[in-house]
Amino acid sequence: VADFFQQVVAGLGSGAIYAALALALVLIHRATGVINFAQGEMAMFTTYICWALITNNGWSYWPAFVATLVIAFVLGFGIQRVVIQPVAGASVLTVVIMTIGLVLVFNGLAPLIWSAEIRAFPSPFPNETWQIGSVSISQQDVGTFAVVLVLVTLLWAFFQFTKTGLALRASALNPEASRLVGVRVGWMLAIGWGLAAVLGAVAGILSAPTLFLEPNMMQATLIYAFAAAVLGGIDSPFGAVAGGVILGVGLNLIGEYVDFVGADLRLPMALLIILVVLLVRPAGLFGKPVQRRV
Amino acid sequence: VKRSDGIRFATFGLAAVAVFLLPRFISDFRAQQLAYVGIYFIALIGLNLLTGITGQISLGHGAFMLIGGYTTAILISHQEPPLELLGHQFTGDMRDIWTIPLAGLLAGVIGFLFGFPALRLHGLYLALATFAVAVATPAIVRKYAGFTGGGGGINFFDAEGRTKSEITTDPVTFEQVESPIEILGISIPSFNEWLYYLCWTIALVLFGVAWLLLRGRLGRSLRAVRDSELAAASSGVDLARYKTLAFGISAFYAGVAGSLLAIATTFVNPETFPITLSIFLLVGVVVGGLGSLWPLVFGAVFIQFMQNEWAQSAENAIPDFIPVLGDIDTDSAGAPAVAFGVVLILIMLAFPGGAAGLIRTVRGLATRGYDRVR
C-alpha cells in the first residue's frame, strides 16, 4: 500500500506538468477552435530563453522565471497576430499546417541558437524528500504541483473576476455577438494565445530539471498533454487539469504494476487513451457532447 | 478518350523518356539524390490522395512508411539469431525487389484497417490521432526488439537478396571499380543508377495508376467527401467505404515508398522514420499543392534538397546575431527544420495552392494573353 501511495504522489508532479500544457491547448482550442501542435515546441523554446537568462546572463532563478513568462506571453500574442490571424477563416487543415510550420521553426531555431547539446537545468526546489510514514515525498514534485496549482488558480480568477477575462470568455463563446458589443475579438484571441504560451513556459521550465534541456524535450509531454486534454474534454479547462493529474498518476501506476507496459510503452499508452476516448466518448470526461452542425 | 487526354498521354510519355535518359547526363551522386526524390514523390502522391483529395489530415504517414520499410528489411535481412514473431522465424534472404509489393500491401491493409476508427474522427481529431501514432510508433518498434531489431535496427547491407554491385580495386591503377548490375540483359553501371531506375519506374507506374484512379468515379467520390460529407452522402457516396479505401490506397503508396527508402539506405531503425518525416511529407504536399498530382514532384525535390543542400547554404548566410542568446551554432541540424517551417508558413500565407496553384495562375495569365492577341 505504501508503494501505491508512493507512485500516486510521484505521479502528481508529472501530472501537474501535463495539466499545465493541456490547459494551454484547451485555452487555444476554446478560443479559436484550433489545436496548437506547436505548444510543446514553444514551451521548449521559452525554457531555453529562461536557461539563457540564468546561465549566459547570470540572472537568478525567480526573476528569470518571471521574465520568461512575460517573454512567452509576448511570443504567443505575436504568433497569433502574425501567423494565425491571417488564416483565421480558413480550413482546419490550413491552420493545422500553420502550427506544424511553427513546430519546425522552433524545433530548428533552438539548436541553431543554443546547439542541440543536452543541458542540465536548475530546479528551485531542494532535491530532498519528506518522510510521511513509509511514503517519501519528493519536494520537487510538491513544488511543481504547487506552482501549477497557484498558476491555475490565478488564471481561473482572471477569467472569472476581471473584465478582460469576461471579454475573453465572451469572444470564445460567441465572437460575432462579442464584436457587436464592442469586444476586440482579435486582441482577445491573441491574449488567449499569450496565456497559453505562459502556461507552456511554466510546463517547460518545471519539467526541464528532470527531462533535461534539449530541443525535443517537450515532444512526449505534448502527446501526454493531448491525451490529458482529450481525456478531460478538449473544451473544458477544469477537465484539462483533472485529465492531466489523472493521466500523470494513472500512467505512473500502470507503468509500475503492469509489467507489459513498463517504461517503454508509456507513450503508446497515451496514444491508446487518445484513441479510446475519441472513439467512445469524444467529449471527454468533463466536456459537453457537441452536436456538429451539418 | 478526350483530346486533352491525348496531350496528357503524350506529355507523360515524353516525361518518362526524359526520366530514363537523365542518368546519362548526371553524376552518380545526383542519380542517388534523384532516386530519393522518386521515393518522396511516391509517398507524396499517397499522402495527397488522402489529405489533399479526400480531406483527411494525416500527420502520421511516416508510420506507414515505417511499416513498409521494416517489411522489406525483415524479409531481406539474414540476422543471427533470426528475427521472430509469435514463434515464426524470419530467416530473410528474400530478393529485395519482390519485397516491395508485399511492403505496399501490408501497409495498405493496415492503413485500410486504421481507416475504420478514423471514420469517427473529424478534422482536428484525426490530425491529433495520426500525430500520436507517428510519435508512438518508434516506441512500439523498440519494444519488440526480437522482431524489429529494437533501437539498433536492422542492417541488411550484406544480405543475399540485396541487389548490389561489387566494388573492387583495379590491380593496375588501384582505383575503386564498381561492377555493373545486370537486369533483364541490360547492364547498369552502378548501384545508385540501379536505385534511380528502380524508384522512378515504380514512381511513374504508381503516378499513372493514381491518375487513372482519380479521373473517374473514385476521384469524384473522394473529392465529394472532402468538399462536404453531407452532400456526398446524400448523393449516394458511401462515406465509410471511400474513406477507408482512401486510407488503404494512401498507406499502400507510403508502404512502397518506405520499402524503397529501406532498400536505398540498406538499413532501418526507428530513427529512419522519425516524426519529422511525417511532417516533411505534409510540407512536401503543401509545396506541390494540395489536391495536385504531378506538381508533387516539386514537393519531392523540395524535401530532398532542403534537407541536405539548400538548408546548409541558407544557414551559412545567417550572421551571428542576438549576442545575448549566446553563439549561433552554425553546424547544427536545426537549419533544415527552420527553413522547412518558414517556407511552409510563407506558402500557406502567400500561395495556398503551392506549385500547382502557381502553375495554374501562370497558365491562366498565358491563356488570357493568347486570347487577347487573337
How would you summarize this macromolecular structure in one to three sentences?
The complex is a heterodimer of chains A (294) and B (374). Chain A is mostly helical and 294 residues long.
Helix/strand-derived class of chain A?
Answer: mainly alpha
Helical residue percent of chain B? 55-70%
Strand arrangement, largest sheet of chain B?
Answer: 1-2
Oligomer: heterodimer
Protein described:
The complex is a heterodimer of chains A (294) and B (374). With 294 residues, chain A is mainly alpha-helical. Helices cover 72% and strands 3% of the residues of chain A. Chain A has 11 helices and 2 strands; from the N terminus they run H-H-H-H-E-E-H-H-H-H-H-H-H. In chain A, strands 1-2 form a two-stranded antiparallel ribbon. Chain B is built from 14 helices and 8 strands. In chain B, the strands form 4 sheets. In chain B, strands 1-2 form a two-stranded antiparallel sheet. In chain B, strands 3-8 form a two-stranded antiparallel sheet. In chain B, strands 4-5 form a two-stranded antiparallel sheet. In chain B, strand 1 (83-85) and strand 2 (88-90) form a beta hairpin. The longest helix of chain B is centred in the C-terminal third of the chain and has 27 residues, at 239-265. Chain B is globular, with a radius of gyration of 22 Å.
Which helices and strands, and how do they pair?
The complex is a heterodimer of chains A (294) and B (374).
Chain A: H1 2-32, H2 39-55, H3 61-84, H4 92-114, E1 129-132, E2 135-138, H5 139-161, H6 163-173, H7 175-180, H8 185-211, H9 219-232, H10 237-257, H11 266-280
Antiparallel strand pairs in A: 1-2
Helix pairs in contact in A: 1-5, 1-8, 1-9, 1-10, 2-3, 2-4, 2-8, 3-8, 5-6, 6-8, 9-10, 9-11
Chain B: H1 3-21, H2 28-53, H3 61-76, E1 83-85, E2 88-90, H4 96-118, H5 123-143, H6 145-148, E3 154-155, E4 167-169, E5 176-178, E6 181-183, E7 186-188, H7 191-215, H8 217-227, H9 229-234, H10 239-265, E8 267-268, H11 275-288, H12 296-316, H13 334-350, H14 354-373
Antiparallel strand pairs in B: 1-2, 3-8, 4-5, 6-7
